[in-house]
User: Fold these one by one.
Assistant:
Number 1:
Amino acid sequence: MSQQELLQYSPQQLLKIYPFLESFFAGQNWILKQNHQQKLIELLDQLDEEQQEDHAFDKADFIEQLHDFISQMEAFVGQKEKSVETLTVLPGNDKSGNPENFEQLIFKTKTITSIVGPTGSGKSRLLADIEWVAQADTPTLRKVLINNEKPDNSWRFSGNKKLVAQLSQNMNFVMDLSVQEFLELHAKSRMAANADVLIKRIIDAANELAGEKFLPETPITSLSGGQSRALMIADTALLSQSPVVLIDEIENAGIDRKKALKILTGEDKIVLMATHDPILALMADQRIVIKNGGIHKIIQTTEGEKAMLKQLEMADQKLQNLRARLRGGEVLAEA
Amino acid sequence: MNLVTISGPPSSGKTAVILKAAESLMKRGVKIGAVKFDCLHTDDDLAYEKAGIPVKKGLSGSLCPDHYFVSNIEAVTDWGIKENFDLLISESAGLCNRCSPYIKEIKAVCVIDNLSGINTPKKIGPMLRMADIIVITKGDIVSQAEREVFAAGVYAVNPSAIIMHINGLTGQGAFEFSTLLYDENTQIDTLKGKKLRFSMPSALCSYCLGETRIGESYQMGNVRKINL
């Protein structure tokens, strides 16, 4: 619909044709006070200069933004986005300008890649390259391909479509909402279909990850550390649109890390995990070593390492059991 | 010279974002100058100086900060041209959320942060709605879901803008942002004759002129009453 055509409709009619306009109208204070059955052009004509001033409102600007919003949303809702199957990083340079020593680094959906290297070694830069789908136009000169093709620019600039979702230890919930309300809000912002089913799945999944269960009515800000992490992971797996998930360490306490990773890979995510915890690092299919701003090595997890992982998990289980018994008030060893 | 106006609510991370982006640009050999507009007090000029960026600061004091901005931006631009900057960055705090110091044909950036609350995008007027680029900061301390919800709120208010996430502490995203700030082919010689993207609020009442007494008989000029 052209800008001129849009003006011939009333807000009510527009909402019927484009239900997603609800969020747009919600951001336009003046419209809420109007008769929704009247044509937009009439509503706009009724606004005198003083009212426009009061609402900090500009007619031409409004109609242009309405038009932009509709065309972008239609593209977003209508087209079945081709999903991201693989992400390929082509080598660039490290901080000293030496070329990186690998042919290509491939991340596939349902796989886990761990990233190791000291702080400041260039993990953030690698992530930023991926997020920006670098085309030899960042300091590292790396190139990133999606499904083996040069990706289009919308990954860079669109507010609705980000390549990477991030989870880290430092993240907290800050909204004053219950778990249920919070997930509803998130589902709405994503315009997710059958939100109710999805929300229930998220809460169930999070409760399965966290040691202690929480209710849909629990305020998100009063969740424990482990519960918060569990909810963030379940929500990111099931409701975030980003195909890549970066995890910056997951603490050992209060959350089943193996299950957490399984949920993410089960939802076709590409999982990247910055960690120096041997159990997590060895759970990955491959790991990359970063040094001096460059990718120094790509290591496929060896059979020996997988065997070692089993032992580590057993030891970890032992620790977890002791922890549970301590919590239960038991004496761990007699005198 | 390029001119960019950057604004945003107080403490949203404007200076941090600018300094990180400037670092990338200066590495490329772009000569940067800055001007900081604020109301009563700012130490941000020291931060610019420390980063090796020539800076001027303007405090509006008893005047409306955005009116002060628009009466001075032309002279500041002339200063930038005289100093031979490639890029002049004007930073100003959006204090009443009503104004925006954006000028037609001059790149406009709004910086807001994830902690400011889910309804904030609706509360900020033209400063957000008329920006070309919107930078969202402090994403490293809130959940992925909150980042997505907040970005969706911003998008609903300004669907035309480029929306970017930047971490002002680590600088993640700042390089990418910097590539959008400076364009070799853009050249401005003067602001004379250019127009604001949106009018400043009209405010001319006795209190603008220094009245302090409360009471009907002291109110003159453009006065409006709350609907109780």
Note: The longest helix of chain A spans residues 303-327.
Number 2:
Amino acid sequence: MRKISARMITDTVAGLCVKANLILRDDVLSALKTAFALETNARAKGIIKAIIENARVARVDKLAICQDTGMPVVFAQIGREVVIEGNFNAAINKGIESGYRKACLRSSIVEDPLSRGRARYTPAVIHIGMVNSNKLKLTVLPKGFGCENKSQALMFKPTADISEIKKFIVNAVKIAGPDACPPYVVGVGIGGTADYASLLAKKALLRKIKSKKSKLEKELLGKINKLNIGPMGLGGKTTALAVNIETYPTHIAGLPVAVNISCHALRSATAVL
Amino acid sequence: MKRIVTPLNKGQIKQLNSGDEVLLSGVIYTARDQAHKRLDETIKRGRKLPIDLKGAVIYYCGPTRTPKGKVIGSCGPTTSSRMDAFTPALLKKVGLKAMIGKGARSKDVVRAIKKHKAVYFLAYAGCGALIAGYIKKAKTILYKDLGAEAIHRLEVKDLPLIVAIDSRGRDIYS
């Protein structure tokens, strides 16, 4: 068994929060640069240029890429041979508190969703999975709510035609329209249960933009980029940088589909202990 | 590119057309969800607002904390449509003249902008670090307990904006 201290987890999570919020993911930045080269609409091109410049300023000036530093979502893969010394969830939240404080990020989390109250840095949404290894993998995904608010989930009939599902996914992007900071990365979860499809849709955002794409993913990206939403919703062929789909077995009576949209500031950082 | 300076007068607003790119200088006030809710409750009670918004520009923004040695943290626009329900009263009752945010507005807001000869601008969305460079002074002036959602008075210099809805009600998104 390998021991990992709560302190080590806290320090790691703190570092991941800073990295994710200040340094735009390489794959996202490179996709934006490709989009800049391919975009023909002058205004869209200008906006993509500003987005790329924003990432540079954020990195150099040590400012958050976006003022919405999100609700921190943490994915933890705990190896079966790892022993965590201390309280795991508390260690993660302490790390978020420390990282967010250090980098002057925004406290955007209210204690009670109904009565609201003063905003704080925590708690994070924490997803824990167990794997066969002697390592601990931690990923922090600060999810902004401009785009999280555009999430959708629908329970299709098991006999639904694939065209209905495609329509639902493209329509979710259409509804997000100019509001959620396009160009988007579209995460899709298909299968499992209603909650699990939503989780898959979020996990899909962690996959690299340039990861190997299925026929369906390519087709959907093509359809979405024909919507002419474009950067800031002002037109152009850059409405989404990628469509990532994750699937899971499901029940004979159903076909859950969830869409989780990310703004162009798709932020995440991972560490393996 | 047009340069405009606050306070925005009728003449300046009239000259702005949907789609124009402008550079704004002067004073703007941040306000987002909870600040709007409080302002709206005050208006509904028939009380005087604790801030004079006549002719003012509101920026839908909740900045990150200000790092040491900087004027402000990351400070891009938030989704404007969440403020739609509160906007017509601000235009009608207190004389608000301009808003800065991101995304489309409701039909009611477009109508109210036209009726009260106001204007709605877009700021570069998701570019909070870049926008911070255009803010020359920042001070929290109202609802301090709201943290990032408090009302901050910002002095901006040549802040790049796009006119989305002009005083004739022409909407870039329609």
Note: Helices of chain A lie at 6-22, 26-38, 42-61, 88-102, 145-148, 162-176, 194-203, 215-224.
